[in-house]
Amino acid sequence: MSKTQVLLVEDDADAALAVTVPLGRTPDFEVKRVACLKEAEACLQQMTPDVLLLDLMLPDGHGLETFRRVKSVAPHVPVIILSGLDDAKLAETTVKEGAQDYLVKGEIDRRILVRAIRYAVERERIRRSLDDERVFTRALLDAIPERMYVKDAQSRFLRINRQCATILSLSHPSEVVGKSDFDFFEKAHAEEAFAEEQLVMQTGRPLIGKVEKEILLNGECTWLHTTKMPVRDAAGAIVGTFGISKDITELKQAEQALRRSEERYRGLLESVMDYIYTVYLEADSPVTTVHGDGCLTVTGYTRQEYNADRNLWARMIHPDDLAMVVESFNRLVATGIAAPVEHRIVHKNGTIRWIRNTPTPRFDEQGRLTSYDGVVADITERKEAELQVLSANARLRELVGELTRSHEDLKNAQLELIDAAKMQSVGGLAAGVAHEVKNPLAILVLGLDYLNKHSSAAGHDISPILHEMEVAVERANTVVTGLLDFAAASTLELTENDLNAIVENSLKHVRHLLIQGRVEVVRKLGANLPAAVLDARKMEQAFINLFSNACHAMPHGGGLTVETSLHMLGANEVQRDAGSRTGLRLSPGDPVLRVEIRDSGTGIPTDKLARIFDPFFTTKPTGQGTGLGLSVTRSIVQLHGGFIDIFNRAGGGVTVTVTLRCGSQKAASHEPPVADDAIPAKTA
């Protein structure tokens, strides 16, 4: 056990011996002596004694000033005054200012001195402990966020923590001492608080967990969760109250906001016509659904009917949409991702209604889907309007398409009329030129014939020259003949004819070309074909032109296939000209006679295919064609109300398709039909 350190401040040697000798005989004391105040201050800066024995009359210090100077240097060291004066007033003053005891010199024995020192040391230890406890208690109270206070029996504040002082707008908690609630709060709240505290003190029963509203004098309003308890003294008597209040203003405001929100929500639900529902997905229970009153408006069934029949909603879904709705529900449960679904239901009255089901998922703290809310809106009118709009748009597209086609047909008709007028003028000119040229050519032919017979009389051989002249005249005659054919009057001698017989006669006329060109003919002539109302001579001329062109396209031989058939026109095979001037039309579904001519020749250059029907245009070398054959052929076909199409075959060669009317469509007549405005759809 360490010794008690004693610092003696005494300038009188005899008085010092009177202290040190008795203490020296006590083993647990260790005494150090200084003779003046200055030495005492220096010593206190180097050490902290357990007790200080101080003479008030020193060479450099007198009376209370000496004591005060020592306390300022060592405020926590207990001080016992040693004085030569038995002055009760001075003794009382020094004790009030912090001295532990006041002993008069000459009256001190060893027992009194030891006891005084030990009491002083113990009292200082207790004081320090109490100070530490007070500091800890204050720090603890100030750290608590709740308001804490202690009141006396008259409900006056004795102590509050810093949080409470802040609320009461005090700079320090000590400023509240002696005041009451009437100094800080409105009268009504102060009176209520006073009555509660008096009741707690009278009954001894605490008031726990009261929710109260308090209004400060400045008008600020707060909500508190308050507990008040009685305070008892050492004897157990109730001497006041202790209170702790938690500020729940934000919670109360949130509660009020939630209540207002719920009221608005209920009002909204009562005002809307949609169907609100909630589906719960607890793991340990089956799926449960809470239905809003709007279900009656949307589906015709009441909430009570839904609750009585848990499968009512599933049965109400249209059978064609059930799989889609189930898939959407399963996807929501599996992924937590919701998407609106539009589907049909069967209303209670039996009608089919369209609805839009919009779910909103809800999750717990772990992110697990626990339920989802949904809004079901009747969108039948919108769907019907959409269908009407779609139907109107489709009809509008059809009308626009028809208008576009009519416009194109009109343009084509205009172009054809212009071309027809041009060709009519050209035909008239060609006829005039041909008639004027043909007579001189006839005279030239007679002259050449005469010269051939009498060339030997000339005395030298002029036959080569005459042969060249004959070729030139024949060439000119061919051109003139073509012009006459091209300019022939648009009159037909229509009779019912066997189309196959016309084809055979045409092949006979080109037999010499087939043999010379080593062309093998394959016939695929349809049996039991209906009669064709034709001008046989003109139609044979048209086929001869086509067969001749095919032979010319196969200079090294090849194959020629001729096929006849009865055919039903498809919708994509005929384009109609809205500007037609004739009642003769070919329509989809009409029966027609078709002649298809296929050769294995060289084909037609792609860049020239579009011009093959133009007059005087030819793909043959110069001197081998007039360019009028296909123009004449198309004119003949169109005069019969048909159409012709020519395209290259994928495997090589050309396919020519001639489409003609059946005899049952038009009676035989000497009045030819005007060229039909049906234009074949291009197939290649």
What does this structure look like?
With 684 residues, the protein is α+β, with helices and mostly antiparallel strands. It has 18 helices and 26 strands. A hairpin with a 5-residue loop joins strand 15 and strand 16. The two termini are 125 Å apart. Mean pLDDT is 81; it is low at 576-584 and 665-684.
Summarize the structure.
This protein is α+β, with helices and mostly antiparallel strands and 684 residues long. It contains 18 helices and 26 strands. The strands form 7 sheets. Strands 2-1-3-6-7 form a 5-stranded parallel β-sheet, sandwiched between helices. Strands 9-8-12-11-10 form a 5-stranded antiparallel β-sheet, with helices on both faces.
The total strand number stands at 26
Task: Report strand order across the widest sheet.
Answer: 2-1-3-6-7
Shape, principal axes of CA atoms: elongated
Computed over alpha carbons, the radius of gyration is 65 Å
Structural class given helices, strands, pairing?
Answer: alpha+beta
Q: Mean pLDDT, nearest integer?
A: 81
User: What is the CA–CA distance across the termini?
Assistant: 125 Å
- The helical percent reads 40-55%
How many helix segments?
18
Largest sheet: 5 strands, parallel
Our estimate of the beta-strand percent is 15-25%
Give the secondary structure arrangement, pairings included:
Blueprint: E1 4-9, H1 13-24, E2 29-34, H2 37-46, E3 51-55, E4 57-58, E5 61-62, H3 64-73, E6 79-83, H4 88-96, E7 101-104, H5 110-143, E8 147-152, E9 157-160, H6 162-167, H7 187-203, E10 207-215, E11 221-232, E12 238-247, H8 249-271, E13 275-280, E14 288-291, H9 295-299, H10 303-308, H11 312-316, H12 322-335, E15 341-346, E16 352-363, E17 369-378, H13 380-453, H14 463-486, E18 495-497, H15 499-509, H16 511-516, E19 519-525, E20 532-534, H17 536-552, E21 558-568, E22 574-575, E23 591-599, H18 629-639, E24 643-648, E25 654-661, E26 679-680
Parallel strand pairs: 1-2, 1-3, 3-6, 6-7, 19-21
Antiparallel strand pairs: 4-5, 8-9, 8-12, 10-11, 11-12, 13-14, 13-17, 15-16, 16-17, 18-20, 21-23, 22-26, 23-25, 24-25
Helix pairs in contact: 2-3, 13-14, 15-17, 17-18
